[in-house]
Specification:
The structure is a single chain. With 555 residues, this protein is α/β, with parallel strands linked by helices. The chain folds into 2 domains: 203 residues, FAD/NAD(P)-binding domain (3-Layer(bba) Sandwich); 186 residues, Cholesterol Oxidase, domain 2 (2-Layer Sandwich). The protein has 15 helices and 25 strands. Strands 1, 2, 11, 12, 13, 14 and 25 form a 7-stranded mixed beta sheet that branches. Strands 7, 17, 18, 19, 20, 23 and 24 form a 7-stranded antiparallel beta sheet that branches. The chain is globular, with a radius of gyration of 23 Å. This is GMC family oxidoreductase N-terminal domain-containing protein. Its cofactor is FAD. It comes from Piscinibacter gummiphilus.
Length: 555
């Protein structure tokens, strides 16, 4: 990363995460286009990235995680949360839960209704399918290589498989959910994800399948693609030359790992920010794009007043209820015994199955917090284990955890600069449970969890509520307890909101071009105007797939 003179590229992609890896693949497919992909982290050559249970060793590890933390949150009764973000090739797809989830058709139809032409479910579905490699083969909602459903392009690189495990306690929870009125589902990705069943995951034969493997590695031998790692983008550069266009992005300034003089890279085509819902708004603000008062507070010259930059932060808060059980095996006991750990390791070594192939959550359910809801507004992540907090030891008794989140929170937070230094972590204020509607749904969701666990299918295991505790009954008590036990499920979005220019908080237009400037696009989860109804990694890939087509077409 030490060129003798600033190199010139057609496209510069800032961030080699989920979106950046796909963009690098698609844009460099044209051998006439020079592409630079810049990543602040290192290569994805750490063993624990690839073993699914290794997320335990990647989150909170400076080798793979930005190590962000939220500010003290009133909705969480003053607590701060660890806020993992991938800092490695593959980004969050290298450290996340591997769950393949598109959300609901209504999510995308709503984006379109907000004035974003071209973002309906019908228009987004082909982009999901364009890169999908679905284990069951192709049909009207899925694609797989070698198939050509209804004359459409066959699928591609993003492998989606069934999990290679099962647990009696999870099967019992699924049966109990059905007894409570939640239907069975064997596919959450057909536009309406209501139901209960095991999640599909982004793995290949029990090994994590991240965006770097799927999209970047096949393109690395292209002469027109260059990848910089250990390179921190500090700001976007504009044409401030005499007679130039000061609203035209022409490159980026990059800080090399370990210090030294900043490097410059120039773009004759576009600069594309794909750094995620935390880092993208930080780069925009450092570049003079944001709320004028905030930029001036940090001594940053205002390039263009965009008050929505960093605002509109949305995330899924999971409320983790823990139930002790008897007469059934859970990971708590199995993984605490030395011989249990040895058997787990041996099974994975020989077959790539079992506990080491586990995604963080195995069983899912989508349902309504109450019958008046017009669509499923809750998501469950159920695990055959329990602990006090992520990263803490497993409990010394058999238990399972039923985590539930409000899919469509009305609370909004923000990501703002802490200082004018690009090396200072931004200030993340999530504002969880800051609306009455979110607190009410939190209380309802805990009651629903109790109703599911009280069904006959789980009775043989004598479940006992450990957390939050049956002594808490009122809405006020349960909402406060939700603040005590809730934690992020790692789905921040929305901080560079897509919307028409008439929307005062919109940052990008429907083709993801930044309002008020030229040659600059945002392509990551930050552009979502509202959060999708489920896990956000694969929707981010869909966004990148669509953007790549527009960029190559010059639209």
């Amino acid at each position: 990363m030490n060129p003798s003179s600033p190199p010139v590229y057609d496209y510069i992609i800032c961030g080699a995460g989920t979106a950046g890896c796909l963009l690098a693949n698609r844009l460099s497919a044209d051998p006439k286009k020079r592409v630079l992909l810049i990543e602040a982290g290192g290569k994805d050559d750490y063993l624990w990235i690839h073993i699914p249970v290794g997320y335990l060793y990647c989150i909170g590890n400076p080798r793979t995680d930005w190590l962000y933390q939220t500010e003290a949150d009133p909705g969480l009764n003053g607590r701060k949360l660890r806020y993992p973000r991938g800092k490695v090739l593959g980004g969050c797809s290298s450290i996340n839960g591997m769950i393949y989830m598109r959300g609901q058709a209504r999510d995308y139809d709503h984006w379109g209704a907000l004035g974003n032409d071209g973002w309906s479910w019908r228009e987004c579905l082909p982009a999901f399918m364009k890169h999908e490699d679905f284990h069951k083969g192709a049909d009207e909602f899925h694609a797989a290589p070698g198939f050509d459903p209804v004359g459409k392009r066959p699928g591609g690189e993003w492998r989606v498989e069934k999990q290679r495990l099962r647990w009696d306690v999870l099967d019992a929870f699924a049966e109990a959910a059905q007894q409570a009125g939640i239907p069975h589902s064997n596919d959450f990705n057909r536009g309406d994800n209501e139901g209960v069943g095991y999640f599909d995951v982004n793995q290949r034969r029990g090994i994590r399948w991240n965006a770097a493997k799927a999209f970047l590695r096949p393109a690395l031998d292209r002469d027109n693609l260059q990848v910089w790692t250990g390179a921190h983008v500090s700001r976007v550069l504009f044409d401030d030359s005499e007679g130039g266009d000061p609203r035209r992005a022409i490159g980026v300034e990059v800080l090399p790992h370990g210090g030294g003089q900043p490097e410059i890279a120039h773009a004759r085509g576009e600069v594309i920010l794909a750094s995620g819902a935390v880092n993208t708004p930080q780069i925009l603000q450092l570049s003079g794009l944001g709320a004028a008062s905030q930029l001036q507070h940090h001594g940053i010259a205002v390039r263009h007043h965009l008050p929505g930059v960093g605002g509109n932060l949305q995330d899924h808060l999971q409320i983790r209820a823990v139930f002790g059980v008897t007469g059934v095996n859970t990971l708590n006991i199995q993984a605490r015994r030395w011989w249990g750990k040895a058997l787990i390791g041996l099974e994975y070594l020989l077959k790539q199955t079992g506990a080491m192939s586990m995604a963080p959550s195995q069983l899912g359910a989508f349902t309504r917090s109450d019958p008046s809801q017009p669509h499923p507004n809750l998501e469950y992540h159920v695990q055959p284990l329990s602990l006090d907090a992520f990263g803490e030891p497993l409990h010394p008794f058999n238990a399972f955890t039923a985590s539930v989140c409000n899919l469509n929170p009305t609370s909004r937070g923000h990501v703002h600069l802490r200082s004018a230094s690009p090396l200072d972590a931004p200030l993340i204020q999530a504002n969880y449970l800051s609306t009455e509607a979110d607190r009410h749904i939190a209380a309802q969701s805990l009651r629903l969890t109790r109703r599911i666990v009280a069904q006959p299918a789980l009775a043989k295991y004598a479940p006992k509520e450990i957390k939050p505790g049956t002594q808490f009954e009122t809405d006020e008590e349960l909402a406060r307890l939700a603040g005590d036990i809730g934690t992020t499920i790692f789905h921040p979005v929305g901080t560079a909101k897509m919307g028409p220019e008439a929307d005062p908080l919109a940052v990008v237009d429907a083709r993801l071009k930044v309002h008020g400037v030229r040659g600059l696009r945002v392509v990551d989860a930050s552009v979502m105007p509202t959060i999708t109804s489920g896990n956000t990694n694969s929707p981010t890939l869909m966004i990148a797939e669509r953007a790549a087509g527009w960029i190559l077409a010059g639209t």
